[in-house]
Amino acid sequence: MHDGNDSDLPELETIVVPKRRKGIYVLPNLFTLAALFGGFYAIVMAINGRFDLAAVGVFCAMVLDSLDGRVARMTNTQSAFGEQMDSLSDMVSFGAAPALIAYVWALKGLGRWGWIAAFVYCACGALRLARFNVNTAVVDKRYFQGLPSPAAAALVAGFIWLMTDQGVKGPSVAWPMFALALYSGLSMVTNVPFYSFKDVHMKQSVPFVVIVLIALGIAVINIDPPIVLFGLFMVYGCSGYVIYGWRKAKGLQTSVISTSTEEPDERGLHK
Protein backbone atom coordinates (compact mmCIF):
# COMPACT_ATOMS: atom_id res chain seq x y z
CA MET A 1 0.00 0.00 0.00
CA HIS A 2 1.05 3.55 -0.61
CA ASP A 3 2.32 5.11 2.64
CA GLY A 4 2.28 8.71 1.38
CA ASN A 5 6.03 8.88 0.89
CA ASP A 6 6.85 9.78 -2.72
CA SER A 7 10.61 9.49 -2.32
CA ASP A 8 10.65 5.98 -3.78
CA LEU A 9 8.72 6.96 -6.89
CA PRO A 10 10.76 7.46 -10.06
CA GLU A 11 11.17 11.05 -11.07
CA LEU A 12 9.56 12.04 -14.32
CA GLU A 13 12.00 13.51 -16.75
CA THR A 14 11.07 16.83 -18.25
CA ILE A 15 11.04 16.62 -22.01
CA VAL A 16 12.18 19.84 -23.56
CA VAL A 17 10.70 20.38 -26.99
CA PRO A 18 12.97 22.58 -29.06
CA LYS A 19 11.32 25.71 -30.38
CA ARG A 20 10.59 25.67 -34.06
CA ARG A 21 12.73 28.18 -35.86
CA LYS A 22 10.82 30.86 -37.65
CA GLY A 23 11.82 30.98 -41.27
CA ILE A 24 10.75 32.58 -44.52
CA TYR A 25 8.56 30.63 -46.89
CA VAL A 26 10.29 30.44 -50.25
CA LEU A 27 7.49 29.77 -52.74
CA PRO A 28 5.12 32.74 -52.21
CA ASN A 29 8.02 35.15 -51.69
CA LEU A 30 9.54 34.04 -54.98
CA PHE A 31 6.41 35.31 -56.72
CA THR A 32 6.61 38.54 -54.73
CA LEU A 33 10.27 39.05 -55.68
CA ALA A 34 9.42 38.31 -59.30
CA ALA A 35 6.68 40.97 -59.17
CA LEU A 36 9.19 43.39 -57.65
CA PHE A 37 11.59 42.60 -60.47
CA GLY A 38 8.82 43.40 -62.96
CA GLY A 39 8.46 46.88 -61.48
CA PHE A 40 12.22 47.44 -61.40
CA TYR A 41 12.53 46.18 -64.98
CA ALA A 42 9.82 48.64 -66.03
CA ILE A 43 11.75 51.56 -64.54
CA VAL A 44 14.99 50.50 -66.23
CA MET A 45 13.26 50.11 -69.61
CA ALA A 46 11.69 53.56 -69.26
CA ILE A 47 15.10 55.09 -68.58
CA ASN A 48 16.39 53.33 -71.71
CA GLY A 49 13.49 54.68 -73.78
CA ARG A 50 11.76 51.30 -74.27
CA PHE A 51 8.35 52.35 -73.01
CA ASP A 52 6.56 49.39 -74.59
CA LEU A 53 8.69 46.98 -72.57
CA ALA A 54 8.25 49.17 -69.49
CA ALA A 55 4.47 48.79 -69.77
CA VAL A 56 4.81 45.03 -70.27
CA GLY A 57 6.93 44.87 -67.11
CA VAL A 58 4.13 46.51 -65.10
CA PHE A 59 1.55 44.06 -66.47
CA CYS A 60 3.83 41.10 -65.68
CA ALA A 61 4.23 42.41 -62.13
CA MET A 62 0.44 42.62 -61.86
CA VAL A 63 0.01 38.98 -62.88
CA LEU A 64 2.71 37.79 -60.49
CA ASP A 65 1.27 39.90 -57.66
CA SER A 66 -2.09 38.22 -58.10
CA LEU A 67 -0.45 34.80 -57.76
CA ASP A 68 1.67 35.18 -54.60
CA GLY A 69 -1.31 35.47 -52.24
CA ARG A 70 -3.15 32.59 -53.87
CA VAL A 71 -0.05 30.40 -53.71
CA ALA A 72 0.44 31.25 -50.03
CA ARG A 73 -3.18 30.31 -49.22
CA MET A 74 -3.08 27.13 -51.28
CA THR A 75 0.16 25.94 -49.65
CA ASN A 76 -0.75 27.32 -46.20
CA THR A 77 2.41 29.44 -46.11
CA GLN A 78 0.94 32.81 -45.13
CA SER A 79 3.16 34.92 -42.92
CA ALA A 80 3.46 38.46 -41.58
CA PHE A 81 6.77 38.76 -43.43
CA GLY A 82 5.07 37.86 -46.69
CA GLU A 83 2.37 40.49 -46.16
CA GLN A 84 4.93 43.23 -45.54
CA MET A 85 7.05 42.08 -48.47
CA ASP A 86 4.01 42.14 -50.73
CA SER A 87 3.14 45.72 -49.73
CA LEU A 88 6.68 46.95 -50.37
CA SER A 89 6.74 45.20 -53.74
CA ASP A 90 3.39 46.76 -54.67
CA MET A 91 4.69 50.22 -53.78
CA VAL A 92 7.56 49.83 -56.23
CA SER A 93 5.68 48.06 -59.04
CA PHE A 94 2.35 49.90 -58.88
CA GLY A 95 3.28 53.15 -57.14
CA ALA A 96 6.74 54.36 -58.07
CA ALA A 97 7.20 52.57 -61.41
CA PRO A 98 4.06 53.87 -63.23
CA ALA A 99 4.68 57.39 -61.91
CA LEU A 100 8.29 57.41 -63.13
CA ILE A 101 7.41 55.84 -66.49
CA ALA A 102 4.65 58.39 -67.09
CA TYR A 103 6.95 61.24 -66.11
CA VAL A 104 9.82 60.18 -68.37
CA TRP A 105 7.47 59.36 -71.26
CA ALA A 106 5.20 62.41 -71.32
CA LEU A 107 4.93 64.47 -68.14
CA LYS A 108 8.48 65.84 -68.16
CA GLY A 109 7.55 68.36 -70.83
CA LEU A 110 4.88 69.92 -68.57
CA GLY A 111 7.46 71.21 -66.11
CA ARG A 112 6.26 71.43 -62.53
CA TRP A 113 2.77 70.25 -63.48
CA GLY A 114 4.27 67.05 -64.79
CA TRP A 115 6.16 66.07 -61.69
CA ILE A 116 3.26 67.16 -59.49
CA ALA A 117 0.94 64.75 -61.35
CA ALA A 118 3.53 61.97 -61.06
CA PHE A 119 4.01 62.65 -57.35
CA VAL A 120 0.26 62.76 -56.67
CA TYR A 121 -0.09 59.33 -58.28
CA CYS A 122 2.87 57.92 -56.32
CA ALA A 123 1.66 59.41 -53.01
CA CYS A 124 -1.88 58.12 -53.54
CA GLY A 125 -0.45 54.68 -54.22
CA ALA A 126 1.37 54.74 -50.88
CA LEU A 127 -1.72 56.01 -49.04
CA ARG A 128 -3.91 53.39 -50.68
CA LEU A 129 -1.59 50.55 -49.67
CA ALA A 130 -1.31 51.84 -46.09
CA ARG A 131 -5.10 52.14 -45.77
CA PHE A 132 -5.57 48.68 -47.25
CA ASN A 133 -3.26 47.18 -44.63
CA VAL A 134 -5.08 48.74 -41.66
CA ASN A 135 -8.61 48.21 -43.07
CA THR A 136 -8.23 44.55 -44.00
CA ALA A 137 -10.33 43.31 -41.08
CA VAL A 138 -13.25 45.69 -41.59
CA VAL A 139 -13.72 45.97 -45.36
CA ASP A 140 -16.31 43.86 -47.19
CA LYS A 141 -14.19 41.25 -48.97
CA ARG A 142 -16.33 41.46 -52.11
CA TYR A 143 -15.14 45.00 -52.81
CA PHE A 144 -12.00 47.11 -52.71
CA GLN A 145 -12.13 50.46 -50.95
CA GLY A 146 -10.97 52.62 -53.83
CA LEU A 147 -9.31 51.55 -57.06
CA PRO A 148 -6.73 48.81 -56.34
CA SER A 149 -3.16 49.86 -57.08
CA PRO A 150 -2.51 47.15 -59.74
CA ALA A 151 -5.54 48.35 -61.71
CA ALA A 152 -4.41 51.99 -61.40
CA ALA A 153 -0.96 51.00 -62.64
CA ALA A 154 -2.58 49.07 -65.52
CA LEU A 155 -4.46 52.23 -66.56
CA VAL A 156 -1.27 54.30 -66.72
CA ALA A 157 0.91 51.58 -68.25
CA GLY A 158 -1.87 50.49 -70.63
CA PHE A 159 -2.25 54.03 -72.00
CA ILE A 160 1.51 54.32 -72.53
CA TRP A 161 1.64 50.91 -74.21
CA LEU A 162 -1.31 51.75 -76.47
CA MET A 163 0.09 55.12 -77.55
CA THR A 164 3.56 53.68 -78.13
CA ASP A 165 2.09 50.85 -80.18
CA GLN A 166 0.21 53.41 -82.32
CA GLY A 167 3.39 55.42 -82.87
CA VAL A 168 2.22 58.37 -80.74
CA LYS A 169 4.97 60.24 -78.91
CA GLY A 170 4.56 61.02 -75.22
CA PRO A 171 4.87 64.84 -75.39
CA SER A 172 1.96 65.04 -77.85
CA VAL A 173 -0.41 63.46 -75.31
CA ALA A 174 1.09 65.00 -72.18
CA TRP A 175 -2.15 66.53 -70.92
CA PRO A 176 -4.23 63.35 -71.40
CA MET A 177 -1.48 61.52 -69.50
CA PHE A 178 -1.67 64.23 -66.84
CA ALA A 179 -5.44 63.74 -66.49
CA LEU A 180 -5.19 59.94 -66.44
CA ALA A 181 -2.43 59.99 -63.80
CA LEU A 182 -4.55 62.20 -61.55
CA TYR A 183 -7.68 60.12 -62.16
CA SER A 184 -5.89 56.84 -61.39
CA GLY A 185 -4.12 58.24 -58.35
CA LEU A 186 -7.11 59.94 -56.75
CA SER A 187 -9.35 56.95 -57.48
CA MET A 188 -7.07 54.84 -55.30
CA VAL A 189 -7.80 56.94 -52.21
CA THR A 190 -11.56 57.36 -52.68
CA ASN A 191 -14.14 55.24 -50.83
CA VAL A 192 -15.74 54.14 -54.10
CA PRO A 193 -16.37 50.35 -54.13
CA PHE A 194 -14.62 48.34 -56.84
CA TYR A 195 -15.52 44.67 -57.23
CA SER A 196 -12.67 42.48 -55.93
CA PHE A 197 -13.57 39.09 -57.52
CA LYS A 198 -12.55 37.48 -54.20
CA ASP A 199 -15.84 35.59 -53.98
CA VAL A 200 -14.90 33.70 -57.15
CA HIS A 201 -13.55 30.36 -55.92
CA MET A 202 -11.06 28.76 -58.27
CA LYS A 203 -11.36 25.33 -56.62
CA GLN A 204 -15.07 24.96 -57.35
CA SER A 205 -16.30 23.16 -60.46
CA VAL A 206 -17.71 25.36 -63.20
CA PRO A 207 -19.81 24.66 -66.31
CA PHE A 208 -17.95 23.77 -69.48
CA VAL A 209 -19.07 27.01 -71.12
CA VAL A 210 -17.02 29.00 -68.58
CA ILE A 211 -13.81 27.36 -69.81
CA VAL A 212 -14.82 28.12 -73.38
CA LEU A 213 -15.42 31.78 -72.50
CA ILE A 214 -12.00 31.99 -70.79
CA ALA A 215 -10.36 30.57 -73.93
CA LEU A 216 -12.23 33.11 -76.07
CA GLY A 217 -11.13 35.90 -73.75
CA ILE A 218 -7.48 34.92 -74.09
CA ALA A 219 -7.90 34.79 -77.88
CA VAL A 220 -9.46 38.28 -77.95
CA ILE A 221 -6.61 39.70 -75.86
CA ASN A 222 -4.08 38.21 -78.29
CA ILE A 223 -5.70 40.03 -81.22
CA ASP A 224 -4.30 43.37 -80.01
CA PRO A 225 -3.09 43.29 -76.37
CA PRO A 226 -2.54 47.06 -75.92
CA ILE A 227 -6.05 48.03 -77.08
CA VAL A 228 -7.88 45.18 -75.36
CA LEU A 229 -6.08 45.42 -72.02
CA PHE A 230 -6.36 49.20 -71.82
CA GLY A 231 -10.05 48.96 -72.75
CA LEU A 232 -10.72 46.33 -70.09
CA PHE A 233 -9.03 48.33 -67.34
CA MET A 234 -10.76 51.53 -68.43
CA VAL A 235 -14.09 49.74 -68.00
CA TYR A 236 -13.00 48.45 -64.60
CA GLY A 237 -11.63 51.87 -63.62
CA CYS A 238 -15.07 53.39 -64.24
CA SER A 239 -17.09 50.49 -62.81
CA GLY A 240 -16.63 51.57 -59.21
CA TYR A 241 -18.24 54.95 -59.85
CA VAL A 242 -21.14 53.23 -61.62
CA ILE A 243 -21.65 50.96 -58.59
CA TYR A 244 -21.40 53.95 -56.26
CA GLY A 245 -23.95 55.95 -58.28
CA TRP A 246 -26.34 53.00 -58.50
CA ARG A 247 -26.18 52.40 -54.74
CA LYS A 248 -26.64 56.10 -54.06
CA ALA A 249 -29.67 56.24 -56.33
CA LYS A 250 -31.22 53.19 -54.66
CA GLY A 251 -30.58 54.56 -51.18
CA LEU A 252 -28.26 51.67 -50.35
CA GLN A 253 -25.12 51.84 -48.20
CA THR A 254 -22.22 53.02 -50.32
CA SER A 255 -19.49 52.26 -47.79
CA VAL A 256 -17.66 48.93 -48.09
CA ILE A 257 -16.89 48.90 -44.37
CA SER A 258 -18.68 45.89 -42.93
CA THR A 259 -17.67 46.35 -39.29
CA SER A 260 -17.52 49.61 -37.38
CA THR A 261 -14.55 50.57 -35.24
CA GLU A 262 -14.39 52.57 -32.05
CA GLU A 263 -10.76 53.55 -32.46
CA PRO A 264 -10.71 57.35 -32.84
CA ASP A 265 -7.33 57.29 -34.57
CA GLU A 266 -8.64 55.01 -37.31
CA ARG A 267 -12.22 56.21 -37.61
CA GLY A 268 -11.36 58.67 -40.37
CA LEU A 269 -9.96 55.89 -42.53
CA HIS A 270 -13.28 54.10 -42.74
CA LYS A 271 -15.57 56.91 -43.85
CATH superfamily: CDP-alcohol phosphotransferase transmembrane (TM) domain
Biggest sheet overview: 2 strands, antiparallel
**Bulk shape:** globular
Radius of gyration: 24 Å
Instruction: Supply the CATH class.
Output: Mainly Alpha
Spatial strand sequence of the major β-sheet: 1-2
Mean pLDDT: 84
Report the portion of residues in β strands: under 5%
- Kindly report the CATH topology: Four Helix Bundle (Hemerythrin (Met), subunit A)
Name of the CATH architecture: Up-down Bundle
Number of domains: 1
Structural class: mainly alpha
Number of helices: 8
How many strands appear in the DSSP assignment?
Answer: 2
Low-confidence stretches: 259-266
Summed up, what is this model?
The chain is mainly alpha-helical and 271 residues long. It is 63% helix and 2% strand.
